[in-house]
Specification:
Blueprint (H helix, E strand, L loop, with lengths): L18 H9 L44 E8 L3 H17 L3 E8 L4 H11 L5 E5 L3 H6 L12 H5 L3 H6 L1 E2 L2 E2 L10 E5 H7 L16 H17 L6 E3 L13 H10 L11 H7 L15 H15 L17 E6 L1 H10 L5 E5 L13 E5 L6 H11 L2 H11 L6 H5 L3 H4 L1 H12 L9 H16 L4 H16 L4
Parallel strand pairs: 1-2, 1-3, 7-8
Antiparallel strand pairs: 3-10, 4-5, 6-8, 6-9
Length: 484
């Protein structure tokens, strides 16, 4: 991860889709999020207020006019959280209501996995909430479908620039910030020092630079040594690598945030654009419509073959086994700052450490975040943007991150926590946040990764990596064809 993936979306045309093509995709069972033709084209821009930042309550980065005095209702659809996290929203709404009693907030909580489909259904109905929870990897679909208002029209430049650059760029199309990244989720490698010590194997380096970790080859060699030591001692229940807890768990559970690491890290964003190394990294053609020649390159096949080795050699269990790492029966695991923060709050059951994800040709970690957006069909664009900015003001976000255990997306909030300049794991998270890469920009990214999840699972279970990746590339080409 030696460079940042700079946004080059201005050279990447966003092509309009017909209603027929979109509905055909939905009918086939694929959640197509780009829905132009269902909405009027709108150009709603807020006029900067006379006194930005001086409203009845702290509206965070909002720069628009003072909010209406008329009675209105704002609807917000988001994922459901545990009670302690939900309580932070309730408290925020109470403060907003005290300042603007004429504005009613109606909140809808949705199970996390149902959010993309909910967005689709609402937009198709013509009556969607003013604010909906999305993700930055769907931003090309929001742009193609004209679903989201450009947030830079409502937020101060300083506020927008405060967002870690990789996340900000991944949420931007043609200069328009179309969703607001909610938190930072750097993927790092956690390890159990006690198990490494028992196995007599040297642990990974505890560094704060994302480029200073192990190579994939060093990691595979270490997994092999730990596995042989465990089995030689008669231990058949402990593994060198924990089963994934991403998504639904197990292999093929979350290609976007986890398994793509092994594939895209074998590419190189600095290589010649005609090279397979460059195409491996970009993962899709510049127009976002072709996977063949990008997903099935020699480098990509090598990367997914490394991944298959985890299961082929017994380093990781084949199925779903929750909480292996925290349960002390896995030497390594991949996760975000939540692991470290939960250990800090709840207490760690063993001696643990953290290191960068192993690097291929480059050090690589993804930058994917839940990201609310303001619906382009809202009748109250200024007020919707202001409510979103209020929810994301300093106090409300710090309360959220304290309750949820995640890392803030804005650098100024991170700077308020001394751990991010003094604690190794937190400093590594900052390095990841500054050097992460966004998912490929394609209006059909949902289709892409939905096809890749079963592909990865098949390969983990023993399918030929080259043949299965070539099959997946052709399948994805067909799925993306409806966006032409």
């Amino acid at each position: 991860m030696t460079t940042r993936n700079d946004d080059n979306s201005s050279s990447r045309p966003i092509l309009p889709l017909s209603r027929r093509r979109v509905l055909a995709g939905a009918a086939s069972g694929v959640a197509a999020l780009a829905l132009p033709g269902l909405l009027p084209s709108r150009a709603l821009a807020a006029t900067p207020g006379k006194n930005p930042g001086k409203y009845k309550v702290d509206l965070g980065g909002y720069k628009g006019p003072e909010l209406t005095s008329s009675k209105i209702t704002l609807r917000f659809m988001r994922q459901d959280f545990p009670p302690a996290v939900n309580a932070t929203f309730t408290k925020a709404y109470e403060a907003f209501k005290a300042a603007y009693p004429n504005i009613t907030i109606e909140e809808e909580r949705v199970p996390y996995g149902e959010l993309p489909q909910k967005v689709q259904v609402y937009v198709a109905s013509g009556s969607a909430p003013d604010i909906m929870m999305g993700r930055n990897d769907f931003v090309s679909a929001y742009a193609a479908g004209e679903l989201a208002l450009p947030l830079q029209d409502f937020l101060s430049a300083d506020y927008v620039q405060d967002i870690y650059a990789p996340l900000r760029e991944s949420a931007t199309i043609k200069g328009n910030l179309l969703c607001l990244p909610w938190e930072t989720n750097p993927t790092m490698m956690y390890f159990n020092r006690d198990l490494f010590k028992k196995a007599g194997v040297a642990p990974p380096p505890e560094v704060s630079d994302v480029n200073a970790g192990w190579t994939v080859e060093q990691y595979l060699d270490t997994l092999d040594k730990i596995t042989k030591s465990l089995r030689a001692s008669g231990n058949k229940d402990t593994y060198a690598l924990a089963a994934s807890m991403h998504g639904g768990g197990g292999p093929g559970s979350n290609y976007t945030q986890l398994e793509s690491i092994w594939v895209r890290s074998m590419g190189d964003p600095k290589a010649d654009k005609s090279s397979t190394a460059y195409k491996t990294f970009t993962a899709v053609s510049e127009d976002g419509l072709t996977a063949t020649g990008y997903l099935d390159t020699p480098e990509a096949i090598q990367g997914i073959t490394h991944y298959q080795t985890f299961f082929k050699n017994g380093y990781c269990p084949m199925g779903i086994q929750p909480d292996m790492y925290r349960g002390g029966i896995a030497a390594t695991a991949f996760g975000s700052m939540n692991f470290a923060n939960r250990f800090k709050i709840e207490g760690a059951p063993f001696d643990w450490g953290c290191s960068p994800a192993p690097r291929g040709k480059i050090a690589y970690t993804t930058t994917v975040a839940d990201s609310p957006f303001v619906f382009s069909g809202t009748a109250n664009p200024n007020e919707a943007a202001a409510l979103l900015a209020f929810i994301c003001n300093d106090d409300n976000r710090l309360a959220f991150h304290t309750a949820w255990g995640s890392m803030p997306v804005r650098q100024s909030l991170v700077a308020q926590n001394p751990d991010y300049t003094t604690k190794q794991v937190s400093m590594l998270a900052v390095s990841c946040a500054n050097n992460a890469f966004g998912p490929p920009k394609s209006a059909g990214w949902f289709d892409y990764f939905s096809a890749m999840n079963p592909t990865v699972k098949d390969i983990a279970l023993g399918a030929d990596p080259a043949a299965r990746m070539q099959q997946a590339a052709k399948q994805i080409d067909g799925l993306l064809a409806k966006y032409k």
